[in-house]
Design brief:
The protein contains 15 helices and no strands. Helix 7 packs antiparallel against helix 9, helix 9 packs antiparallel against helix 10 and helix 10 packs antiparallel against helix 15. Belongs to the UbiA prenyltransferase family. Protoheme IX farnesyltransferase subfamily.
Amino acid sequence: MTNETASSVPMPADWRDFVALTKPRVMTLVVFTGLCGLLVAPGHLSPILAFTAILCIALGAGAAGALNQWYEADRDARMKRTAGRPLPAGRMDRQSALHFGVGLSFFSVLLMGFATNWFAAFILAVSILFYVFVYTIWLKPRTAQNIVIGGAAGAFPPLIGWAAVTGDVAALPVALFMLIFFWTPPHFWALALFVRMDYANAGIPMLPVVAGERTTRRQILFYTVIMAAAALAPVLLRLTGLVYGLTALIATGIFAVLAVQVSLSHETDPAQMRAERRLFKYSVLYLFLIFGAVVVDHWVKLA
């Protein structure tokens, strides 16, 4: 389906289609990491302002997701995984998605600025712009390294949550930013391995498409090693304590074992790529475990 076709059909969009534009499953992880950044920051926000800050992070992420789907409607139509989204499925016109994404972007940034501080609002704005212009429009259709550089877009929430409380950034949220940044390639490439044909059909130069599965598996292991160093950095730099250190060591060890299994796999049939699917699923749980440990570690130190 082309952009022109999608925009010419009467669209019976309802509220569920607008929710789908925000990529709610992706938003869950974004909100959680942002909440953790807020909870471990020194200082205090009232419950109402804290809720508002997290709401703004969610709305900003949703706005970026909506603008991503607006721009990629024609590509999404050529991928089985995304063909059911509101735009390629013909349930919504592109102009509505654009207006929704832009409006949500401005609302989330302005609300963050007025409710907390304008530095947090600035980082939120940068994260939205980075995801839309740097990742979606510039990197994704042009380079196999799209997810390496573009992964920064999903790493901003801990910085935003911290800044909402303090009005600045410090070593710990930067370390958490780097952890998500280096976590993104093995997480996303594990998925890309078993949906490679989708990306090929859409003309998106993901690493498995342009460099092959063997190279992708090696890169997953390479970035897992870097991610492991980033995961242990907070405790080595004495930014966190024993609770985080033990959790990071065990959880990252499991991640590394799964990454090694992927690197040793020779499976070419996506339906049989069990090691890749295990790594992808665990990588999501991994980030929840790591960031939850940061919060628990912080509470233990305060007790």
